[in-house]
Amino acid sequence: MLKRLFGFDHTKTTIRREIVAGITTFLTMSYILAVNPTMFGLLDGMPSGAVFTSTTLAAIIGCLAMAFLGKLPFGLAPGMGLNAFFVYSVCLGMGYSWQFALTAVFIEGIIFILLTLGNIREAIVNAIPQSLRNAIGAGIGLFIAFIGLSSAGVVVHDDATLVALGNITSGSALLALIGLIITSLLYMRNVPGSILIGILITMIIGVFMGVTEFKGVVSHPKSIAPIFCKFEFENIFTLDMLVVVLTFLFIDMFDTVGTLVGVCTKANMIDRDGKIYRIKQAFMADAIATTAGAVLGTSTTTTYIESAAGVAQGGRSGLTAFSVAVCFAIALFFSPLFLSIPAAATAPALIIVGLLMLEPVAKIQWHDFTEAIPAFICVIMMPFTYSISNGILLGMIAYVVINVMSGRYKKISTTMYILALLFVLKYIFI
């Protein structure tokens, strides 16, 4: 039954391993439950309690869709970056209402469903050269390691040098480094659930260091009535709506593509032709989650790169995604407890996973500059621009330009030519 429901294969994984993987993924991505209410609370008419509930419900729907449709071990929730664009660019920057932004997210979700039904998203993934696929995984690894380091304060902003080393002798940064040592030792000794155990131990140590702030245990879910199904369709035919929808579309599409390609490549969840199993179903789950999230009153719901933490723990089927959904459902009632987990406790998990995801770079043909240069651009632009989609887009543009200039234009597919042109136009006009 588990195989039929979740694609569970007892020869490749175990129920315990899948559950541990799901809990691990949840803990590494649960920060969104704290971030989203704070961020959307800046907008009039979006109560933090309602946003917390809508964020959690969107994550549950997304994970269940991935579990039963995609049958892949990925967690979904309203995405970081996409929520910032929603609040700071569309609402606070452009001056549009949050109802306008929700409408844009809803339209984006419908478009994604249509693109998935037409196999367009699948065609895009299949068009990506193998060298770039390997680069995507490595780029994501550096990106999520950077997220972990910055969230814990190990790496901080600096006006002179852009980034700098934080105060690693105390507070959150020190706790993260202690947690990194503990998690590394557990992982090296092949302790089952090492990443999850590392998160929990680090959280407990944080209590004695004054970093882990205990916020309580139980809280009843707040109503989403103030933000449920609040759309503003009178502005859907404006140029600004087009720009906003396309921006959501590009970021979400290639963040999801990057996550699926990168993590599945690392986990060897691909067939002999290098294609990801059930990728169409995974895209459909993502599209359904985005559309449902807009109805619930939250920003674009997407596949999380933190899913790599669960995959590193052995998650291989939809049972992992189902476990993530269960964790989010529990979080609805135990939000104070889950929100007590500090960023310093999850940072080591992200750093370790970032290391593990660098492995595919060994498969890149570094002696062939027509493959190496685009791959390198793809890898470095993800952490340097703080965007998976930018890394993919710039890497694919570079691949086409460099190979055409080198006279190797025949090895480039028609789809790649079209995509590269669209990406160039995107940077010019959007």
Short précis:
The chain has 430 residues and is mostly helical. It has helices spanning 2-6, 15-29, 32-40, 48-70, 82-93, 98-117, 120-127, 130-151, 171-188, 194-209, 239-266, 279-296, 307-312, 318-331, 335-338, 343-356, 369-385, 388-405, 414-429; strands at residues 76-78, 155-158, 162-165, 301-303. It has a two-stranded antiparallel sheet. Strands 2-3 form a two-stranded antiparallel sheet.
Description:
- There is one protein chain.
- The protein contains 19 helices and four strands.
- It has 430 residues and is mainly alpha-helical.
- It has one domain (2-429).
- The strands form two sheets. A two-stranded antiparallel ribbon has the order 1-4.
- It is globular, with a radius of gyration of 21 Å.
Give me the secondary-structure topology.
Blueprint: H1 2-6, H2 15-29, H3 32-40, H4 48-70, E1 76-78, H5 82-93, H6 98-117, H7 120-127, H8 130-151, E2 155-158, E3 162-165, H9 171-188, H10 194-209, H11 239-266, H12 279-296, E4 301-303, H13 307-312, H14 318-331, H15 335-338, H16 343-356, H17 369-385, H18 388-405, H19 414-429
